[in-house]
TrEMBL record:
Necessary for normal cell division and for the maintenance of normal septation. Keywords: Cell cycle, Cell division, GTP-binding, Magnesium, Metal-binding, Nucleotide-binding, Septation. It comes from Algimonas porphyrae. Belongs to the TRAFAC class TrmE-Era-EngA-EngB-Septin-like GTPase superfamily. EngB GTPase family. The keyword Cell cycle applies. Its cofactor is Mg(2+). InterPro entries: G_ENGB_dom (IPR030393), GTP-bd (IPR006073), GTP-bd_ribosome_bio_YsxC (IPR019987), P-loop_NTPase (IPR027417). Pfam families: MMR_HSR1. PROSITE patterns: G_ENGB. This is Probable GTP-binding protein EngB. Residues 42-217 form the EngB-type G domain.
Amino acid sequence: MKPVLTERTYQSEEIEAGRLLFARPVTFMKSAVSLATLPPMGPPEVCFAGRSNVGKSTLINALTNHAGLARASNTPGRTQELNYFDAQGRLNLVDLPGYGYAKAPKHKVQAWTRLTREFLRGRATLRRVFMLIDSRHGLKPVDLELMDMLDETAVTYQLVLTKADKLKKGQLTRMHEETAQAIAKRPAAFPAIALTSSEKGLGIAELRAEIASLALPSEPV
């Protein structure tokens, strides 16, 4: 397996912390269709955002070692609610509806797009938005619009280039550099960009380590 390009080197203890966070089952909590149906604020939350069909559900399944936890589909717009998952009571993972193109009625797309934006603007326990970008296509105008909103509301977000195995090394390096330049002056952007492939397992251990750094400490055994 070829080494994964990264802007950050993770220590062995960080990798182990990420492994341990997801070593026990991550369980489905609930689906929220409105702000009123969100679970009570508790442990820190991280959410996964991205264009429809970018691979959010597939990435969550890879991170949690559970192939069927998040519902993955080749049909854009399958996820139409905010789906919550509990990681040992230390962290909640949130799978957001995809934005952009979706095979759904326009009024439904507008409704869950509005819900997503309201959630991102007002959730006090949200520690980071992991914003997925297909490495084959790069940033699109709809991605930039969401980044503008997150910058405005000071919600920290980290870009995750998915499907990194689909590019040759030189292409991936260029995409990584172009993406880094695009976020260089954005105030809410986390500087490190994650490169992942759910299919090949590239970058999964590193992303787990990053997520674990945002979780509550584990209880002593």
